[in-house]
Every structure is written in C-alpha cells, then in structure tokens.
Design goal:
1896 residues, alpha+beta, six-stranded antiparallel beta sheet, five-stranded mixed beta sheet, 73 helices, 49% helix
Length: 1896
C-alpha cells in the first residue's frame, strides 16, 4: 500500500509530488509523506545517492524550485547571529578591542562590514577551524557587530505557517537516516581509517543538511526541534517496531546501536565520583542530538559532522542542549584520543567544537553547577595521565615511592592532553567558574593530585663517562605539559584574585600546596638538606603554585608571608629543589652536563624562554627570595654553596685544573644567582608598568629589534603575549628606526633604545635572567659601553676610564609583608666567600703579571658581583642603622682602626657575625690546609678527587712569624666570649683546621679589650640542636698591639711577603647542624666529633697564608684596576652621580666610601692600610706626573720640528718632479698612445701578462637567458597593474599583447608571410625573449688556470650549490657566480690613421672592407676558447629561439649579432632607457663585457660570412650608400644591379640597429677594431635609413600628411623644411601603391598636428638608434658619454657626440643626413613600392609599426593594501587545473596565477612555476606567494626566497601571515626587486639559492 502510494506520487515528478506533499502537510495530518520517505530514505540504498538528495531538496521546497524556496526562507531570517562555521586553513579575523572572550573570532565578510580600522585586530589562518561570533553579545561587544547582524539590521516580517510544514515533518526522518548510516558502519573495523571511509560515504548527505541549515533561522529552528525533542526520538527508534521490512531493519539497527554503546570505552573514575552522570559507565541517549553526539565521538569528530552541529549554534535552546550533551560525553574524549591514529587532527576538531560551547560564561557556569563539568575535566585529565606513570628516580629509587608522568609515552609526545587542558583553561577564564573551583576543596585536592604527577618528572641523570649515545627528545614534552596543563590554569585562576576578599581562597591554595609538598617530600624520601647532584629535574609545579599564590596573596590580598609559611626546618627542605634547579641551570651553562648532549642545553634555554620564564624561573626565584628572607642568612648561604658545589673553591682548597675550571664557572653562577636574589623585584615589589619597562629595556639592550620580535620575546602568561602597557612602554623607551632607503639588504623597521634605557632601566642581572643565549648579555654590555663612550665623548669626560663594569642596580627594599631577601648579605658565610673571590682576584692578577702559566684571574664581572653584594650589605647596614642599634660595637675604651685577626679558621667560618663593617676590617691571617686523610670525600659524586692531584704548598718565601714564640694570649672571661649567631656549621671539606683564635687589635691601646657582638639571636630552649664546643679565645697581646701601633705591617702586592704570627691551638672541627649553636667553654682535651672528621693541629701543620682583610683586598684591587699605586683616597670625594655607571675603581671606591661612612673604624683601617702598603706614594706619583708632563711637552716640540722639515723636503721634490715632467710632454703622450698592449692579472696564479693566442686570458662572466627587453611596453600606454578584478584582468591581457616581444613577433610574422626566409631573418634582431645577457665581476684569469680550477671543483667535495658539469664556478677572487669566460683577443697592429675624407669616400672604403676576401683564421688556443664561449652562449639561449628561426647560416649570424645588441640594449635599460643624467641607479651598469663580446661575435660572424657568401652584407651596404656612377651621380643598388631572383626585404623595412651590428662585426679585420671615421660613416648612413623609415611611418599613420596640409599657407613663403621635403618625396614616390593613402585618409585626428610637433616625434623615434650608437662608440673607443641634463637636450647632444651634426643648439633631424640622402631614399622608396605588389597588407602593417618608442620594462604595479590582493587571489581557481591552489602564486611579470609546488599542472615532468618562468621570463621568474607574502625568484635551475614586498606599520615582514596585521607595499623594496631583475643581479645579490628540481 505504502509503496504503491509512493510510486503514484513519484510519477507526478519532483515538483508535482512536492506540491502535493506540501498541501497534504499544510492540512495538519500528512498521510502520504511517510510512505514516500520510506521509499526515498530506504536504508538499503546508498545514503549519498544523488537522486535521493535531489528528491529531498524538491520535497522540502513544497512546489517551488529549491533555489526559490531557499530565497523565500532567507527573507525571513532575523540575522541575529552569523554563526558561519569554517574548517582549518580558512582566513578569519580576531579583534581584541571588540572581544569579550579571548577565543572570539569573526569571518572575513563580517569583519569587512564592521568598522575595525582603528582596533587591535589580526588576520589569521585558522588551524583548528572555528565559527563566526558576530552578533553574539556574550562573546563580543555589540559595537563590533557588522551591519548584517545583531540589532543593526531591519527585522523581517512573520513567516506564513505553511511555509515550513514540510520541513518540520521531514527533518526527523532526514536526521534519522544519517544515524542509521552511522549504526550500519559501526559493525566494521574499529580504527581511524574505517571511520574515515564511513564518513566519506555520507559526505553528500551531510552537505545537503548543511545547505538546509544555511537557509536561516526558520530552517534551523525546524532542524533543532527535531534534534532536541525526546518524544520524537522515542517515536522513531524505540520498540515495538511494526511488523514490516522497515520495522525489522529498525530492530536490527537498535542491536547495532546497543552493541556500539557497550563497546565504546568508558572512564573508570574513583568510587566517590561514580554517581556523576557524566562519569557513568554506560551512556543514555534521549534525543536525536544525544545519539548524534555519540556517533561524533565514535567516528573521531568528522569535520563535516562537526561543522553541521556547529552551524546550528545560533539557536540558543539547541546550544544549551548541545553543550549538556557534549559534557555528558566529555569523559570519553581521553579514550578516543588515546586510540586515534591522528591525535593532532582529532585534537583540533575537539577544540573546534568545545571552544564554541565553553566560551559563554553563563552556560559554562550552569554546566559546572549542574553537571560537575570541572570535576569531569580534572578527572578526565587525571585518568589519562594516570595510565602513563612511572616511578620517580629523582633521589634514591629504592626509597622513592612517588610516581610521575613518563614523558616518552605517545600521550605526551603527541600532546593528546591538549584538548582537555585547553577546555579547562577556557572554562577557568570565566571569573565565576574560577571562584567555584577555588572554593571546592575536593576539586583543589584532585587538581593537586594531578600536579603531583608532574612534580619531578623528566629526571636528567648526569653522564660522567662517555657521551650519551641517543639524546632523548622528550624534554620539550615535559616543558609543554607543565606550561599548558599546570601554569596556564594557574594564571587563569590568579587573574581573578585581585581583592583582599579573596585572601581566604589564596590561603587555601597555599595550605593545599604545602600539604601536598610535604607528602611529596615524604614520598621521595627527602629529609636531609643535601640534594642529589647527579640527578636533576626542572619540573616542580607544586613549588611554583605555592610561590604564585603566595605572591598574589602578598601583592593584592593583604597576606603576610610569615603568617602562612611553614616552620624553618620544613622551609629549608622546600627551598632545596628550586635551589637545585638554579644550580642545574648554571651547571649546564658551565658545561658540567656536556656529555648529556644538546638536549640538556635545550632544557636550560627553554627554562628561561619567554613563554616559560614567568611560570618557571620567575616563580623559582620568588620562592627562593621568600626562603632567603625567612631563613637564617648563614644557613641559606651555606645551602647555596653546597648545592652549587663550590665549597672547595671558596675555602681556598687546592684542586685539580679541571676541577678548578669547573668551579670557576660555578662561582660565577653562584654570585649571579645571589645578586639576582637580592636585587630582583619582578614579583617582589614591581607593579605591572615597572615590570613592563624592565622587560622592554632588557630586550632592547640586547639588540635593536622589530616590533614582532619584542612582542614574541615579552614574557607571557596564560598564552597571551600582549601586555596592556607594551605599546606605551615601547613608545617611552625606544625610537623607531625605519629601514634605510636604497639598501640592498632587506632590512626591517627596528626599535632603538633611548638614553633612558641605559641610564635608568638597563639591568644586566635581568638580562642574564632572560638571555637564552649568553651572547645577548655580552651584546648588551657592548652596546652599553658604546653608549657611555659616546656620552662621555659628547660631554668631554671619561678620559682614563677603564673597562666598564656591569651597571648593577641598587637593591631596593621589598614590601614588608613579603620579607627582605637582602638579609642574606648580612651573613658571615657570604662575607667569607666574597673575601675568597677578592683574594683570588688580587692574587691571580699579580700572578698573571709574574708567571707565564698562572691560573686565570676571575673575570671582571665576577669581581663586580662580589663588590655589588658587599655594597648591598653596606646599604642594608645603613638602612638598619637608621632604625636599629648597631649590630657590632666596641667596648668602652680608646678606639682604634685595627680589626680582629683570625687564624686557623675555615674561611667560610672566619666571620662570627653578619656585620659588614666589622667583617670588612677583620684580618684573616691563615686558613687550615686541606685534609691529609685519604678517606672518601663527602661530595665525591660531584667532585671526584684523585690521589695523583698535586697538593698546594705555601710559597717558599712566605713570611715567618715575627712575634715571640711564647704565647701571651689572655683568656677571656665567660661573659666576654664571642657569640656566633645566625650561622650554620661548615661542610667537612672546610673543617680541616683547628678552632680559631681571634685577637682583636686596637692600635693605640695596650689594654685588653673584648669584642662584643650584639643583636645576635638567642638559642631557644626548645631547639633540638646538639651543642658542640668551639674553642674561641679572644685576647689582645701587648706585643701585637705595639706592633700594630708602631710598626705597621708591610702589605705589598706580593702577598707572600706578609708577616704571619705563629698563633693557634688545636680544637674540634665544626659539625653540621641545622640551627645556630653557642660556643662551649674552652677545653684542654677536646673530644673528636661523631662524624668522620679529621683533627689538625696548627702547632705542627702548615697553614694556608691569607693575611688579608676585605678592605685590604678592595684597596689592592682598586690599585690593580687603576694601574697605579695608592689609587684610592678617602680625601677624594665620592662621585656626585648616583648612576651605577663606571669602571672597576669607580664601584670599588664607592663601596669603600660607603664602609667608611658607616663606621669610622673602617675609614681608619683604610688609611692605615694605605700607609702600610704605599708609604708616601702620593707624593712620588705627583712628582712622576710632573716629570712625565715635561717630557711629553719636549717630545711634542721635537715632533713638530721634524714634521715641518719633512714638509719642506716634500715640497722641494714635488717641484722638481713637475719641472721634469713639463719637458717630456708630447713625446710621453705619443708613447702612451702607441702602448696598446694591456696586461691582465690572473686571479688564480696571481701573474700579470698580456693575452696571447697561445696563452689567452679571459674575462669571468655569467651568462643568463633574459626576457627583460621583451617586457617593455609602449610609451603612453599606461603602467601595467596587477589585476584585482575581471575588468583589470582583461586590460592587463591587452597590455601584454602590446609588449616589445609581442611587437617583434608580429613584425617577424608579417615579413615572413611575403619575403624570403634568409632575407627577413637578416633584417631584424632576435632574442627579445630568451636572449643572452652577459655580466662580469671584472676579474681575469688564464684559460689554462680555469681548466685546472674546474677540475678541482669537479672533485667529490664540490660545493652543493654549483652545477660544475654545466660550467658553473665561483670567481676565485670575489666569489661571485660565473659560468663562462670571454677570451680577450690581443689587439691587431695599429693601422695608419685614416685621413679625413668625404662621406662617399669613406663609404667606398667600407664597401671594400666588406667585400674583400679574408684569410681563414689560424687555429689556436684563442680560437678554440672563442668557439667554446659561443657554444656556451648558444646553450644559454632558450630553445624558443632555435625552434622559431632555425639553424641556417643567416639565422645563426642574426643570433650572433643579436647577442651584442641584447647586451647593449640591457645596459640602456639599466640607465633608465635614455642617456640623460639621472640619479645613480642601484646597480651601476658595467661595460666590461661589450668589447670582448663583440670580439667573440665578430670572429664567428666573419667565419659565417665566408661560409655563406658574405650573407648579402656588401649588397646591403651598396644599397645603403650607393657608390658614385662614372658620370658623377649616385646610383642606387636597385638601379645599378640586376634584381635578385628572390624576394628581399626592402631597406625601408629593415631594422637599422640590426644592420649596425652586422657592419660592426663584418667590416673590421679584427672586430671591433676599426677607425672611428668608418664607425661614424656607418652610423651616418644608417641614421639616414632610420630617418626616412620614421618619416615613411608617420606618413602611413597620417600625422605627416595632416601637418603638410597645415603647412600649405606657409610653404608659399619658402618656410618648408627638410622634413616636409622628405615627406613629399616619399608620398609622391609611393603614391600609386596604396601603402600610405588609406591610413592617411582614415586617420583624422581631433587636432591636426603642426610640422614642429611632427619633428619632435621624428626625433623621439630616432633617439633609440642614436642611444645604441653612442653606447657602442663609448665602449669601442673609450671616453665619456656627453653630460645631458634634460630630455630636450638629448637629441642634439647625441648628434654632436656621434659627429653627425655641428654645434647647433637645436638642430632638426634632417641636418645630420649625409649628402645625397634624398636621392638614395627615393631609390629605397621605389624598392619598397616594388615589394608591395603582392604583399600589400603585410608591408602596410610593417611600415606603420616598424619604430616604436618603448618605455623602460617594469614589474606589474601592485596595490598598496595587501588585503585587496589577498582577497582577490586567495581562493581563486587556477586557470589550468580549475582547482584552488594551496599556495597560490602570481607572476609579477605578466600576472598569471600558478599552482606552486603542486602536481596538478605539471608539464613534461616540470612544475607550473618553473615552466612559466621559462616561457615568460626566459628562465627568470618572479612570483608573489599570496598565502605568505613572500617573493620567490626562479633563476634557471635554482630558486630562492627573496623576501616580502609587503610590510606592516612597523616596516616588518609577516611571513605566512602569522601575525595577521595590515600590510602595505614597500616602494623601496619593490624598486630593489625591479632593479635586480633589470640588472640580472639575482645570482649575485642572493645567497640562499636551492635547487628547485623542477618541483616549484
């Protein structure tokens, strides 16, 4: 029944059936639609059957045509939202000014219809696809809506109810049919390839549904109602099914569906989350949309299905249901990604969909509240990563129970997690969602559990043996994972925590981070302070979360760091791993990890790279600053020394050379780190504006940069590199420098730092912190030094300043709530370390001057860091002195300048307190020697020692103790003992000496005074610290006091002369303790410690002599750097400027001034040390300077006297030379004139010799095929522009038909139709397309040397970019590309000068020269070389010439002659097309090749002439300059000689310039050597021919007849000139042959020209011949071209230069005619008339177009805005294959669109661009790649990326349109490209050529 009904309906036809169905549906109860759809949508038929799809379109139209129905439905569209969906690689726009969500994007049409011209926008090529948000006010501001969407468009009326009745009835069945197809396909193989095939089968059907959706709101509403209606879904798919064939199919289909549901992977969440609907083990579907989404997941998000689903998003109800359904399936995304064969494409499609759903804040919030979206996301991510966990190996693997992500797994390498973290970041960008996340403890715990999986991942194990065999490539996966999965969500959340009310949330995260960190420390079994040195990782996100939220809480929410930090013991443990990351970073820079390969260096560079630094290194530094501020200073510094592994270096322990070199670098790293720690305010005080200034200044300091480089290198957070203050700060700190005009290099616009950068903002420490390459830091210092030099030079200051030290900025006080990391500078351990640095600097500098093999001294920047840290300590002490009591004071009594003396104490324990003034004055006499026991060293894993290492011994001449042997030490009472606070015991490696004996020296007093240290922390009773005895005796011996007062110690540069008291006693070594300890009372019987330490007795063991204090070392260093003794004096005032700009003495002097100002005892100590080291030095220096000044004045006076004497002698000899030369005069000139043999320098063998036939020398040349001349266009035709519309394309095509190449081809065709082949080939030149251009670098070489050179290049190691087999080589001198050599023929013997003669006499001589017999050339090396050169030129020419003109002798001769003409014409083109003086072109034309080229061409022309019966050149000259008849009259060739049997081309149709080349090649005995009178005669004769040809042409075009008619009145007065006479003669002679009359009569101009105007036109057409003749005369005979100022003067100046006319100011063209020219021209006219008997049309066309005034060739003019060009050509189909090219490229010579690098348009195995370059440019192609803006140049078999012609507002390229900023044409670059094309200079100016292998 149903089938019969359907058959009846289908017989009505599609339109009739549709009308019937429409009426049936409009009645409200359709009866016949169902049976018809059962037939049409029968599942047994293919789903994409075209007939079915067409029936559906017609049925939906309801009786209208589908197009009419679509138009009617669209007319009711409300246009609220655009909703256009695009796929990857589609151009879209993003406007940050209009966007509310960072994911906002709009299509091209909406962008151009809106007003975004002044907004911050960019165009981009979509990577994952997207949808247009225009009209959606939840994503973008309404101001940005286009005119078609939102509230800006008129509202349509109400649609009739019956319009959509068929659509609403059909749509459920249409969608069900697609689901049925998916069900059927689910039974096949479960892999990506099978899924792809199943989706392709329904491509047409899905496209039909998308067409319906694109009809607008009405159709979209019908579709969405069907999709989201639960009842409709149940009616369609739920049992019971009818007992029919269709019912049976549906039952089977349901089974397939259930099987697919059961087999689809399900997540396995923890038990506490199994109740969440989105995590249920089995999916439940209630609507068509639910099942549709399931199949979308199942088939891996097919592109067409995703686009179909997203196209309906403008329907708000549908969007809500789609989002909920998507969330319900979300937990399956990780499982689909893991099983996909192409996870990258799948990830893009997932994000394509999810970003449209989660960008709406209200919708995302509802999903979070109702569907637990955040729980689903975090659990999905955690479950995905939980499958790839491995045991962590960071510490002892046997005790490490922590598991981390395995970065080598596919999930990490292919970024399968990216869609999940992208969606998570998108959701957290909504404030309400982020706050919900922070308030949910369970969510926070889940998130930190995930972060724990990243903690300590990708562990690096240091290689100590051989180099690593296979470098792992997984490190970047680890960095990317931490950045995307940990850091970006962190910054998204922190962006919302900006108020004090959020403090509890921040406190909650800090507490959670501390808890998970403590658990992690337990899991990895890390309880000791010491860290593992052979294993290291960069990845500690838990620490960075703690630091980031603590930073935000302190900065914005009023938290105090001390209130939330853990106890000091735990805080020290939490500092260990970030501290190890810092040491690892500097170890990598120092080369410690070099055996681990390049990947380890890549990790260090990535760690501080712009995308990562804010999230990694900055957070690590901030956390360590917090730890430094809240841990005891000595303890923290001691930790740093341990972790950096420099304890031996800082303890002056002798080391091996390798060990010392390694620790030298690590000491630099330690000091750099400490300086950064105390000075950096990146997260510790800087606001956003200040930090932006610092970052921009840092980037500018390293080098001038483009705008995009600055943007890319700005540290980013959460994927957004555009800071709010960037443009403002950039304008403040930089000056824009545009690219220089006229430069060959394609420079871009750069930003140059202003002086404010160097004076106020340049921070070398921040540069080091951001410098991925250390060369950036050195470059910044060089630029800083250059600025200071220039400034001092301008101010006239800076004389005698040494090398500048880095301008380290003062460390400002941080916010009180965070703590002050500068307190670590008040550490006795640090002061001891800095003393070691200064001591090595002074000692090694002295040793470098005394010993040849001394150890290198620490570099200046290391000393600068040490001085800087001491300066910070001094500044901190000064600040504390204002508010607190002094830390150190002297007991009552007479004060003195002497400080304490310390001996026998480990260096890092030498200073008991942290007072910088007291420690600076303390004299360290000696330190203990290294341990002599051979037990295993404590840090053997990092510093392996060898028994064979040499031990360091004290110098033999070290000073002995000068004090009495008996000890006069006095015991100090218990209440006067020295208390050492805030200190941590030293490592065993430093504790090889005895307990110290400290003697306070107070000069001027013999009383025993105690040194009391106040302000030290007390030890609490509850401190669990083991107290150990320290034997410290404080005494003041009288002898020592007397010695200090009366006999100052002699402190010279040689520190070995220091006197050292032999004091000391034995005692216990220090033991490690995590907290400070008090000294115990002295003990006579010390007990050894429990550790394996060694007791040394200073009474019997040697001590390492130091005998220095910090102040003494600073004074010596100041003296060494200044180069003079006693260079510092406190009497000299400190520099007035507070800017940290100066050399070493400047900074050391400032520090000494600070110390002196802080404590008078420091000032006294400075004075005492100066007196002891350099007594009376200042007086001696003053006397020495006075003596040197007197000697300098005397030397200057003697030098002036010698100079005056030399000048007098020089003047006398010059006068003698001029007198001698005056007598030689003419004789010398004659000798020089006779000297014609020239010597050449061979650049290979470096010999100088003339070229001979047996040993010829050649000129290095590069031969190229060229079509430049063929692209000339007629003057006045307008500039050819690249087509941007169909009208412009048609106009360009017409202009292309008017080029010089097309003109000459037509002329050749016209002549070939009537005249003989040999005759017309000899009448014209060839090579306008595919000719040969030669250019030279000007260097010469022997041909025999070249052969040897080429053999060497042909060896196996030949350069990869040379085609040696084709003769290519690089000039041995200048390295320019060449491929041939033009042999230089020796000049012939000089002929006797030709006496001045009449034109007719000279013409007769020339005729004899042309007709005389020439002997055959003698074979020689020279003739062989000339033959080879001609072969190479012939091979260079394109095959088009050979195919068109054949290989007859006449054709070959024409080709040879055209070689010369082509090169002369190319030179003329380079000169701008005329010889008028112009500004110097970019590439000055070189004439080196012309004369050798004429010689080679002439040799072959003479051979061809002899072989081919002289080629008729003699008869041509006879007709051109007929000899006199016996009666004395002139007789033309046609009248005097019988007519040839063939059909020769008349002279009036032959090209005079071509004939000029013929005569120059054939007339001389040895071309081009010919007397200049003969040259002038030839030019004069051909000038006459040119003149009458031009007159004849103007007669044919009607210009001259019109002028003659206007002249009739004036003719009676005898005012007719030679032009009128010539015109009348030609008109009369050709009157009856219909050559001129028709055109003259038909051409009726609007205004009849006068004769003067026509005369100017004649001169214009004559100029080209004159220019070529003038250039040939210049090259052949030398001299300079005339200086022509204006174009009006050019004609007269060239006539005078060529000796064709006299000195008239403005001669007419006929004045240069030879005598008898009129009679000869009449004979030419009769010859022309005779030739028109049967070829009138061809001759007419040739006569009218023979001479053309050509404009200089140029590339096509381009539009200013690149967007116009891009819009027209992007997406435009190729004319050959009909497809849209992936890389559309446009030829800039003709405007043709080609498919670049595509196989679709290949011809003869040659890609289209290469083939087009050969056809259009003679092998040279210039293509603009539309999708990348780049120019690709093809030259022969090579190609190169030339650069871009389009730049943005900052004159910067945007390759591949990655930034998408508006681009504008660079006129300077276009001129450069055109100049290189015209000058054939691509091969010489570009160095990046590659072999294209015919694939472009």
């Amino acid at each position: 029944m149903s089938n019969s009904t359907a058959q009846v309906l289908m017989k009505k036809g599609k339109r009739g059936a549709a009308a019937y169905i429409h009426a049936d549906c409009a009645s409200g109860s359709p009866q016949h639609l169902g049976p018809l759809l059962e037939v049409l949508l029968n599942p047994s038929k293919a789903i994409d059957e075209w007939e079915t799809i067409d029936w559906c379109r017609w049925l939906l139209a309801g009786g209208r045509t589908p197009d009419e129905f679509a138009a009617v439905v669209r007319s009711y569209d409300k246009h609220d939202k655009c909703g256009l969906v695009w796929i990857p690689r589609v151009v879209a726009y993003r406007c940050r000014t209009c966007g509310i969500s960072p994911c906002m994007s709009i299509c091209r049409e909406c962008f151009h219809r809106g007003d975004h011209s002044t907004h911050d926008f960019n165009m981009f090529l979509s990577q994952a696809g997207g949808a247009c948000d225009c009209g959606d006010n939840s994503v973008m501001k309404e101001d940005g809506f286009c005119s078609n969407h939102g509230n800006k468009c008129p509202r349509p009326g109400t649609a009739p109810a019956e319009l959509m009745c068929v659509a609403e009835a059909m749509m459920p069945r249409l969608i069900l049919r697609l689901l049925q197809h998916f069900r059927e396909s689910s039974t096949g193989a479960a892999n990506s390839d099978y899924y792809r095939l199943a989706v392709q089968e329904c491509e047409g059907y899905v496209q039909m549904l998308m067409e319906f959706n694109n009809m607008g709101d009405l159709m979209r509403s019908a579709m969405t109602k069907a999709l989201i209606n639960p009842q409709m879904y149940r009616d369609l798919v739920s049992p019971p099914h009818p007992d029919t064939e269709y019912g049976t199919y549906m039952a089977e289909s349901n089974k397939m569906y259930e099987k697919a549901i059961d087999s689809f992977p399900a997540p396995d969440p923890p038990d506490e989350y199994r109740h969440l609907p989105a995590l249920a083990p089995r999916l439940q579907h209630n609507t068509l949309l639910d099942e549709f989404i399931f199949w979308t997941f199942k088939y891996e998000f097919p592109q067409n299905v995703v686009c179909f689903l997203l196209n309906m998003l403008p329907d708000q109800d549908y969007k809500e249901h789609l989002t909920r359904t998507f969330v319900m399936h979300y937990a399956r995304i990780p499982l689909v990604l893991e099983n996909s064969a192409d996870p990258e494409t799948l990830s893009n499609r997932v994000v394509h969909m999810s970003v449209q759903l989660f960008s709406n804040e209200a919708l995302a919030l509802r999903c979070v509240q109702q569907l637990h979206l955040l729980h689903v996301m975090v659990l999905s991510l955690r479950l995905m990563m939980g499958k790839i966990l491995v045991q962590n190996t960071l510490h002892d693997p046997e005790r490490n129970f922590h598991y981390v992500i395995d970065c080598t797994k596919r999930v990490m390498k292919e970024h399968c997690y990216w869609p999940l973290v992208s969606d998570f970041n998108n959701v957290l960008s909504h404030r309400s969602v982020a706050l919900l996340f922070l308030q949910d403890d369970a969510l926070v715990d889940m998130w930190f559990e995930f972060l724990s999986m990243l903690q300590g991942m990708n562990v690096n194990i240091r290689e100590t043996g051989g180099h690593i065999e296979f470098e792992p490539s997984s490190y970047y996966s680890a960095f990317s994972c931490e950045l995307e999965a940990a850091a970006y969500p962190m910054w998204s959340v922190l962006a919302h925590l900006t108020e004090p009310a959020h403090a509890p949330l921040a406190r909650r995260i800090v507490s959670a981070a501390l808890g998970y960190l403590q658990d992690w420390l337990d899991a990895v079994h890390f309880a000791a302070r010491r860290t593992e040195m052979m294993h290291a990782s960069f990845h500690f996100p838990l620490h960075r979360y703690l630091a980031a939220f603590l930073c935000a809480g302190v900065r914005c929410m009023g938290l105090r760091a001390a209130d939330v930090l853990p106890p000091p013991a735990l805080l020290a443990l939490l500092a260990a791993h970030p501290l190890r990351v810092q040491s690892l970073f500097y170890e990598i820079l120092a080369g410690v990890w070099v055996r681990n390969g390049l990947q380890i260096k890549g990790q260090a560079m990535t760690y501080i790279q712009a995308n990562f630094c804010n999230s990694m290194v900055d957070m690590d530094i901030y956390w360590l600053q917090i730890c430094a501020a809240h841990l005891p200073a000595d303890q923290f510094v001691d930790m740093c020394i341990d972790v950096f592994g420099v304890r031996e270096w800082l303890s002056m322990t002798p080391m091996s050379q390798v060990q010392a070199a390694e620790q030298d670098a690590m000491v630099e790293g330690l000091l750099t780190f400490l300086a950064i720690l105390v000075s950096s305010r990146t997260n510790l005080g800087n606001d956003e504006l200040t930090q932006s200034r610092l970052e921009v200044a840092t980037l500018l300091a390293a080098g001038d940069k483009t705008h995009s480089q600055l943007l890319e290198l700005m540290p980013e957070r959460s994927g957004n590199a555009h800071t709010r203050n960037f443009e403002t700060v950039l304008k403040e700190l930089s000056v824009y420098r545009a690219p220089p005009k006229g430069s060959e290099s394609l420079e871009q616009g750069l930003f140059v730092p202003t002086p404010a950068v160097w004076e106020r903002h340049y921070d070398p420490l921040h540069v080091l912190r951001r410098a991925v390459h250390r060369r950036d830091f050195h470059a910044s210092m060089d630029r800083f030094a250059a600025y200071v030099r220039d400034k001092q030079k301008a101010e006239g200051t800076g004389a005698g300043v040494g090398p500048l030290w880095p301008p380290l900025r003062p460390a400002t006080a941080p916010p009180p709530a965070a703590g002050d990391p500068r307190q670590l500078c008040a550490s006795g351990v640090l002061h001891g370390a800095l003393l070691a640095v200064l001591h090595r600097g002074v000692r090694r500098r002295y040793a470098e001057g005394a010993e040849a093999e001394a150890e290198p001294a620490p570099p200046d920047h290391v000393l600068a860091l040490a001085v800087y840290l001491l300066a910070v300590a001094a500044d901190l002490a000064a600040e504390r002195a204002l508010t607190h009591n002094r830390d150190v004071c002297v007991a009552e009594g007479a004060g003195g300048s002497g400080g304490a003396r310390v001996a026998g104490v480990p260096l890092l324990r030498a200073f008991a307190g942290g007072a910088v003034c007291d420690n600076a004055r303390t004299l360290l006499l000696s330190v203990p020697p290294p341990p002599r026991a051979h037990g295993p060293p404590q840090r053997s894993e990092r510093r392996p020692h060898s028994d064979s290492e040499p031990e360091w011994d004290a110098p033999d001449d070290a000073g002995k103790a000068s004090l009495p042997a008996a000890s006069t030490a006095l015991a100090v009472p218990a209440d006067r003992q020295l208390v050492r606070g805030s200190s941590v015991s030293d490592d065993q490696s430093d504790t090889g000496g005895d307990t110290p004996e400290i003697r306070a020296l107070e000069s001027g007093s013999s009383d025993s005074q105690a040194l009391v240290l106040q302000g030290l922390p007390r030890i609490r009773a509850d401190d669990d610290v083991e107290m150990e005895a320290r034997h410290m005796t404080l005494a003041l011996p009288d002898a020592a006091a007397a010695l200090a007062a009366d006999s100052p110690v002699s402190l010279h540069y040689d520190i070995r002369d220091m006197e050292v008291p032999d004091w000391g006693f034995e005692g216990n070594l220090f033991e490690e303790s995590p907290a400070p300890a008090l000294p115990a009372p002295p003990s006579d019987d010390p007990q050894p410690s429990s550790n394996t330490q060694i007791q040394l007795h200073t009474q019997t063991d040697e001590q390492i002599i130091v005998n220095e204090s910090i102040i003494s070392l600073l004074l010596k260093l100041h003296s060494q750097l200044s180069g003079r003794l006693d260079s510092f004096s406190l009497e000299e005032p400190p520099p007035p400027s507070q800017e940290p700009i100066g050399d070493g003495p400047y900074f050391i002097g400032a520090l000494l001034h600070k110390l002196a100002a802080l404590d008078a005892r420091c000032a006294a100590s400075v004075q005492q040390l100066r007196r002891s080291m350099w007594p009376l030095q200042r007086e001696r220096q003053a006397e020495q300077r006075a003596r040197e000044r007197r000697e300098k004045e005397e030397r200057s006076r003697r030098a002036r006297d010698r100079q005056q004497q030399l000048m007098r002698e020089f003047a006398r000899r010059q006068q003698q030379f001029l007198s001698a030369m005056a007598g030689l005069g003419a004789a010398e000139d004659m000798e020089w004139e006779d000297e014609v043999q020239r010597d050449y320098d061979c650049v290979i063998c470096n010999t100088t010799a003339p070229s001979t036939p047996q040993d010829p020398i050649g000129l290095v040349v590069l031969l190229q095929s060229t079509s430049v001349l063929g692209h000339r266009r007629r003057k006045g035709s307008g500039q050819a522009r690249l087509a941007l519309s169909e009208v412009e394309r048609e106009r360009l095509s017409m202009q292309h038909r008017g080029t010089a190449a097309a003109h000459f081809y037509r002329l050749h065709d016209d002549l070939s139709l009537y005249f003989d082949q040999e005759s017309w080939v000899l009448s014209l030149s060839v090579g306008w397309e595919g000719g040969v251009a030669a250019q030279s670098c000007g260097h010469h070489l022997h041909l025999r040397c070249l052969r040897a050179y080429m053999r060497s290049l042909a060896a196996s190691q030949r350069p990869h970019n040379l085609h040696v087999e084709r003769g290519e080589f690089l000039c041995p001198l200048c390295r320019q590309l060449a491929n041939s050599v033009l042999p230089l023929a020796p000049p012939p013997p000089r002929a006797p000068p030709v006496p001045p003669a009449d034109h007719r006499v000279l013409a007769a001589h020339i005729l004899d020269m042309l007709e005389r017999e020439r002997p055959a050339p003698t074979p020689s090396c020279l003739s062989e070389a000339m033959g080879k050169a001609m072969e190479e030129m012939t091979a260079t020419a394109t095959n088009k010439l050979k195919m068109r003109y054949g290989s007859s002798p006449a054709a070959i001769f024409t080709f040879v002659a055209s070689l010369v003409r082509t090169n002369v014409e190319c030179e003329l083109v380079q000169r701008g097309g005329s010889l008028v003086q112009r500004p110097t072109p970019r590439y000055k034309p070189r004439g080196d090749c012309i004369v050798p080229l004429i010689a080679v061409a002439g040799t072959h022309a003479l051979a061809l002439s002899a072989a081919a019966g002289r080629l008729g050149v003699g008869s041509t000259w006879r007709a051109l300059a007929p000899p006199e008849s016996p009666a004395g009259g002139a007789c033309g060739a046609p009248a005097c000689s019988p007519a040839p049997p063939a059909r020769p081309v008349p002279l009036l149709l032959r090209d005079p310039t071509a004939l000029l080349m013929h005569f120059l090649l054939l007339a001389p005995q040895a071309p081009p050597h010919m007397d200049i009178q003969y040259f002038t005669c030839i030019v004069r004769a051909l000038y006459a021919l040119t003149y009458y040809q031009v007159v004849n042409q103007l007669c044919a075009t009607g210009a001259l007849p019109a002028a003659l008619r206007a002249l009739r009145g004036a003719e009676a007065e005898g005012d007719a000139g030679g032009l009128a006479q010539a015109a009348r003669m030609l008109l009369n002679t050709l009157a009856g042959h219909h050559l001129l009359e028709d055109d003259a009569d038909s051409a009726t101009p609007d205004r009849e020209p006068d004769l003067h105007t026509v005369e100017l036109e004649v001169q214009e057409l004559l100029l080209h011949f004159l220019r070529i003749s003038a250039l040939l005369r210049k090259h052949i005979y030398g001299g300079e071209l005339p200086r022509i100022q204006t174009e009006r003067d050019e004609f007269a100046a060239l006539l005078r230069y060529l000796e064709l006319a006299g000195d008239e100011a403005a001669p007419t063209a006929d004045r240069a005619l030879p005598p008898g020219a009129a009679a000869t021209a009449q004979a030419w006219a009769r010859q022309l008339a005779a030739a028109t008997t049967s070829g009138q049309l061809s001759v007419q066309r040739a006569v009218r177009t023979l001479h053309v005034s050509w404009a200089a060739p140029s590339l096509l003019a381009l539009p200013r805005d690149y967007d116009r060009l891009f819009s027209y050509y992007h997406g435009r189909a190729c004319l050959q294959c009909g497809a849209v090219p992936k890389e559309a490229s446009v030829c800039l010579l003709c405007g043709t669109l080609v498919c670049l690098k595509q196989a679709c348009c290949r011809r003869h195995q040659q890609a289209e661009a290469v083939s087009h370059a050969a056809d259009c440019g003679g092998g040279t192609g210039v293509f603009l790649v539309v999708t990348s803006t780049y120019i690709i140049v093809i030259r022969g078999r090579r190609a190169c990326l030339w650069g871009s012609l389009y730049l943005d507002d900052y004159d910067e390229e945007d390759r591949d349109l990655k930034r998408g900023k508006p681009l504008y044409l660079s006129r300077d670059r276009l001129e450069l490209l055109q100049a290189q094309w015209l000058a054939h200079r691509f091969d010489h100016t570009k160095r990046t050529w590659v072999w294209h292998r015919d694939s472009l």
